[in-house]
Amino acid sequence: MAFAKNTDFPKEEIQFAEWCKALSHPARLSIIQTLMARKECICGDLVLDLPLSQSTVSQHLKALKESGLIQGEVEGAKSKYCINKKNMKIFMKMMGTFQESIKEGCCL
Q: What is this structure's pTM?
């Protein structure tokens, strides 16, 4: 029986795949776009922008925060989120490298 051994891949590829997985839902893409546009946002404001319940938005925020693409802090009864600029910059560089490697072997 074959087992998936992602530990056999380079650390950078594992991180890139984890970030891609974190972005693999339309709500999470919308959250990232909103945070990029606003610089920071309170969870309740995101709930107003998305066709999802507060608990669902919170779950998506948790996944993005655990991936390291966003960061958040609690201010009283509110949670404020923003892009983790350092990790997003690394992700964007990895995405560009990945895109170029695909272009080389394709007709794009």
A: 0.83
